[in-house]
Amino acid sequence: MAKDWSPSSWHAYPANQQPDWPDPGELDRALKQISSYPPLVFAGEARSLQSSLAKVAAGNAFLLQAGDCAESFEEFSAVNIREKLRVILQMAVVLTYSLGVPVVKVGRMAGQFAKPRSSAFEKIGDLELPSFRGHIVNDPTPTEAARIPNPERLVQAYHQSASTLNLVRAFTKGGFADLTRVHAWTQEFVESSPEGRRYEQLANEIDRALKFMRACGVEVENNHNLSEVDVYTSHEALLLGYEEALTRQDSLTGGWYDCSAHMLWIGERTRELDGAHVEFLRGVGNPIGCKIGPTTPTDYVLELCERLNPAHIPGRLTLISRMGAGKVEAALPAILRAVRDAGHPVVWACDPMHGNTFTSSTGHKTRDFADICAEIDGFVRAHHGEGTWPGGIHVELTGDNVTECLGGADKILDTELADRYQTVCDPRLNARQSLDLAFHVAESLRSSGLA
Ligand code: PEP
Ligand code: CO
């Protein structure tokens, strides 16, 4: 267990990005209520995820971490959850087959609500308003009243996370995730357009593999190895009061686990070495992540590894590189080398979204699918050069047919962004772009000889 740590020891450190809750009494009541509620996940599940991530760290598995930038209280429905899960499962099948290793599936789901902001205020028309910080804090409606942080929202976020997780568990164990069925959806995608047909060969290979298994007498239908999957949950551990309220002592090991999700990560804006976020996460037993942007000094990354994983436990720490397509190949190799030489068994994941955000001519915050692919290619090349394993991707997506990121098979133009721009925060890949990306990742690793 971490030395001199308790679930509340973070209070003695500066905590960035915390909302200005107007009434401390109300906040306290909401947090007390949440600490009396059941945990959302169990310590044993977090440990299973950590052992799967240890395989990723060793180069024998691949991490797919994906979901919303920010979950919404308004877009909360079974269909929404099912469609997101469907895309994640489809991507996982493509990656599993083409990389030939298990794919560890982690959703940005069932708790991904709170958002860090570059500025505490934003300008909307002539109004200057407190920034929207995610539905767990305030409401995006552009009025002064809507932007006041409301602790009741913490309780609502807990309940929405519980229902989302319940449905994820039902879908992944109840037949929806059956391999033959997920593959059939992917075939439909491949056949439905000339761009999709680029992937026909890979889809046909998966078909043949399934036929081969059947011919060998493997029961492909009704085989729980093929009909059930593990999908874990994760979010940015931003609101430390909420995370503390869900941190519980495991009766089996005596260790502390943040039971709000299986995996938690620290964002680019809150990873100060002597800050409250690093202090809090260093003490929980869950697998954890930390974002690494293009200006992060190499020594700083090494110090983060020491603080967050002093015992060098494989799978405990995932470093999520989010450099930007134009910077990744210059910034990443020295860090990869240093972390490798220091003997830190980290998972390296590529977030190709957050370093490639810009404002379109129409005023929308967007990302170009080509930049997203280019950052992945640069990430893969950097690993190839250092002999390290490009262990996974971390992406923002939705199962809906939104128009938030440019390009992809449907060649979304900036004049089309307004058609279905629905995100409450950052622009997400739509279902088609997401599956395209999975095929692209497969091609990128294969062409570097890594798969
Ligand atoms: C995010 O993952 O939504 C996010 C805010 O990322 P970052 O901390 O890397 O900017
Ligand atoms: Co985001």
Mind describing the biggest β-sheet? Answer: 8 strands, parallel, barrel
Share of helix, binned? 40-55%
CATH class: Alpha Beta
Annotation field: number of helices: 14
* Helix and strand run: HHEHEEEHHHHHEHEEEHEHEHEEEHEH
- Which ligands appear in the coordinates? phosphoenolpyruvate, cobalt (II) ion
Topology of helices and strands:
Elements: H1 24-36, H2 43-57, E1 62-67, H3 78-99, E2 103-108, E3 121-124, E4 127-130, H4 152-173, H5 179-191, H6 194-197, H7 200-215, H8 224-227, E5 231-236, H9 240-245, E6 247-249, E7 256-258, E8 263-266, H10 276-282, E9 288-292, H11 298-308, E10 317-321, H12 328-341, E11 347-350, E12 358-359, E13 365-366, H13 369-386, E14 392-396, H14 431-447
Parallel strand pairs: 1-2, 1-14, 2-5, 5-8, 8-9, 9-10, 10-11, 11-14
Antiparallel strand pairs: 3-4, 6-7, 12-13
Helix pairs in contact: 1-4, 3-4, 3-5, 3-14, 5-7, 11-12, 12-13, 13-14
Structural summary, described in words:
This protein is an alpha/beta fold and 451 residues long. A hairpin with a 5-residue loop joins strand 12 (358-359) and strand 13 (365-366). The longest helix is centred in the N-terminal third of the chain and has 22 residues, at 78-99. The protein contains 14 helices and 14 strands. The protein has one domain: Alpha-Beta Barrel (TIM Barrel), CATH 3.20.20. The model has no long low-confidence stretch (mean pLDDT 95). Helix 5 runs antiparallel to helix 7 (200-215), helix 11 packs across helix 12 and helix 12 (328-341) packs parallel to helix 13. It has an eight-stranded parallel β-barrel with strand order 1-2-5-8-9-10-11-14, surrounded by six helices. It has a two-stranded antiparallel sheet with strand order 3-4. Helix content is 40%, strand content 13%. Bound molecules: phosphoenolpyruvate and cobalt (II) ion. Cobalt (II) ion (CO) binds at residues 69, 354, 396, 425-426. Belongs to the class-II DAHP synthase family. GO terms for molecular function: 3-deoxy-7-phosphoheptulonate synthase activity. Its EC number is 2.5.1.54. InterPro entries: Aldolase_TIM, DAHP_synth_2. This is 3-deoxy-7-phosphoheptulonate synthase.
